[in-house]
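Format notes (please read before filing issues)

Several people have asked whether sequences and structure tokens are stored in separate files. They are not. Every record keeps both together, in the order shown below: the sequence lines, then the token lines. Line labels are part of the format and must not be stripped during preprocessing.
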Amino acid sequence: MPKKRSGGGLSPTQQAAKFLGVSVLAGAVLAGIALPAVGALGLAAKGSVESFDELPANLKTPPLSQRTTILDAEGGTIASVYSRDRTVVGLKDISPYMQKAIVAIEDSRFYQHGAVDLKGVLRALNNNARNGGVSEGASTLTQQYVKNVFVEEAGDDPTKVAQATQQTIGRKIRELKFAIQVEEELGKQKILENYLNITFFGQQAYGVEAAAKRYFSKNAKDLNLQEAALLAGLVQSPTRYDPVNDEAEATKRRNVVLARMAEVGDISRAEADKAQKAPLGLKVSRPKNGCITAVKGASFFCDYVRAVFLNDPVFGKTKEARAKVWNQGGLTIRTTLDPQAQKSVQQSIKDHVHTSDDVATAATIVQPGTGKIVAMGQSRPYGVDAKQYETTLNLSVNQAMGGGAGFQPGSTFKPIVAAAALEGGMPATKQYSSPYKMDYPTPVAACDGKRWNEKNVELTNENESEVGPYDMKEATAKSVNTYYVQMISDIGICPVTQMAEKMGVQRANGKKLEQTPSIALGVTEVTPLTMASAYATFASRGMYCTPVAIESISQRIGNKSKSLPVPKSTCSRAMSETTADTVTTLLKGVVEDGTGKEAGLDSRPSAGKTGTTDERFAAWFVGYTPNLAGAVWVGDPKHERRMVDITIGGVPYDKVFGGAVPGPIWKGMMSGALEGKPAPGFSLVNIPDADKGTDKDKDKNKDKGDGGNGPGGRNDGDNGDDGNNDGGGDDGDGWGNGGDGGFPGGAWGDLFQGQGNGGNGPGGRRD
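Then the structure lines:
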């Protein structure tokens, strides 16, 4: 008597013999049933078994793709993302009705045959012959499972999917060979479980658990008879029988399944009749996939996490390898996002900038000493509907991570110049003549022994009343342009760019920092994340830590979980503690008595710097406490709308300054983020006030300067003013002068082509 297997069906040898028998018996008539005509590939009956035996015997089953869950630092869900919405469950967690329904409608002799159902083949052959075409197939549930494995392995590659589903004898033979192996190794119950987890049920739902939740908002184990019948009926054609879009067609199909279940004895005729009269009972849960579903306005942070995963080699040597892991899913990603800080950022943004305003804002908060990104938000919502002001451009991050080409930081760059000077031995009491108007000194030393040398480029301070001499403390509080240009001309450009690089400052478009004295006034396009991380260096007393967004990742493969390595923050000393403490002392004065008074925190020590660019295309406030560092940018992402005679958040402004709009946003978001947290103090240094001499001496120095030639234009691609001061400003803020153009290329680089003409213009402005 032939040897049977525990799972039912015939042995591999018998299956091969049956395959040969069917081929010989049916020949070319098998096309469209179990096998197309064997002659199509030159596989005559005599050679069929030999070719069959040459096929590989091991089906490599890829892990089923599942949803990935992104969590905040406290374990709360931010968003679920997936290539295929699937939750793998065991057979014990699938309703018995569902198990019986799928077998009844797809392969009612599943438990009686092996990998191939000869009786089914002959039945289909007979019916197709009578109908004069191919109206019925004969693939078993096991063969269908194998085909789904091929489709799953193909992923989202359309070419591979087509190859996995093509109607050729080669695929059919391969499918049969693997079906025999699967029957031998897994047995019927495991095959049924795998089939129900891999099959597509429509509406983005893969597997019965996702389908039960999608159509009935319940778990697969709780499906009743009519619900199970509806889902089982979907497998043949999820689009045609979609109950969401065609209830009548779905009802007909469900009732066919119920009738079939009664016919094979799974249910009684009375049960079938009762169920057929019942309504569909849909309770649809709409697909919720991707960062667009993120809570607390964290969509852009969610997208940044995805960008980190796809770009960091720790997750795979190649981009393709990383994408494969991401698309496979099953990840639980715990991030650094602090829900309290994130909520505060979004609330402060909402309080000060409307979604429909001509300009937008973006803000980021990081933790000094760890590099952890604790909040990230912007006023423009995440999405693709331009009419709703939506965007997928993350205004807080660099171009390579889903952002744009950045924004000029204006005078928020000046503390980096001060740090370079202090680190080189310059005392904080250093005075410069700081006239109201002067040419850029020239020549100025740059890196690699080069020298910047361009003549007759003029710059001015904010107001004509701002005339030195000034020391570093007063010049920083008032944001005096000529002081900082004299400083960088004195120490050289290279120490400044080197200090910036140590503090993680890089251009948003990935290009090198420019070797020009105007860098002191903030002409290099950067992002809020870059500036927040740089200022965190001051807060942590000179230690720069690379920003990180991911705390841990676990990956579920089948019923097992494993931990994945994650990128770690790398901390390095950028400057001495004394230098950092001195800069903090300078910036504390900015929020107490300088241009940043509107940003100062009431309940704890804070320090920071305002910045407004030439032409008022961007305004900034970047600041910190010992606990957190944050950056706020406000401006037009397209670099077209000047912030003059403008209404933002329902408030009209003649001119926007770094202290007037970004400052209050920063104050609001930091106050909320730090509520209930410790309030440690800064390590400050004593900076004595410098003796400026008599009024007569001051008059002597009023027009003093090194003279010479300027550094060339700013690089925002717009024509500046003609060298004339444009009036004063609030709290010492106001216009900084342009010039006759600038370096070609806009502040948005490849995204928005600049129209600068090269030439004169100091770049940057002072506030």
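For reference, the curators noted about this record: The two ends are 95 Å apart (CA to CA). The chain has 22 helices and 20 strands.
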